[in-house]
Amino acid sequence: PNSDPSGLDSLARRLVNSHRLVDGANCIERIREIPKLAHGGTTRSIELHLDSMRIRQQEKIRGKTVLVLDDVMTTKNSLRACWKLLREAGASKIRCASLTETVYQG
């Protein structure tokens, strides 16, 4: 969940329009920003993500198959938190996809 418009939003809108899907882009809301690891954040635990998000418009989710799109996957914890919240909100199936993954070389 991100409040800034992006290319990912454009991709989501295209998927919704071309496949006649329900747009649930605003169903997961970030209610508290958390610092990105690249910008000095020290943890991105699943608990931190769960505490920073909430479900809105639960009626759009209940009994539906939901696709969660993420731009960059680093710890997978934001996707895990989304999955948990969506399951609790009654989604019947949840699929997660990321455009890229952070790779650390050491």
Tell me what portion of residues adopts beta-strand conformation.
15-25%
Shape: globular
CA radius of gyration is 14 Å
Helix content: 25-40%
Oligomer state equals single chain
Structural class: alpha+beta
Order of helices and strands: HEHEHEHE
For the sheet with most strands, the description reads: 2 strands, antiparallel
Within the largest sheet, what's the order of strands?
1-2
The number of strands is 4
Outline:
The chain has 106 residues and is α+β, with helices and mostly antiparallel strands.
Describe this structure in words.
The protein has 4 helices and 4 strands. The model has no long low-confidence stretch (mean pLDDT 87). The radius of gyration is 14 Å and the shape is globular. Strand 3, helix 4 (77-88) and strand 4 form a beta-alpha-beta unit. The longest helix is centred in the first third of the chain and has 13 residues, at 7-19. It has helices at residues 7-19, 46-52, 58-61, 77-88, and strands at residues 28-30, 53-55, 65-73, 93-101. By secondary structure, the chain is an alpha+beta fold. The termini are far apart. Strands 1-2 form a two-stranded antiparallel sheet.
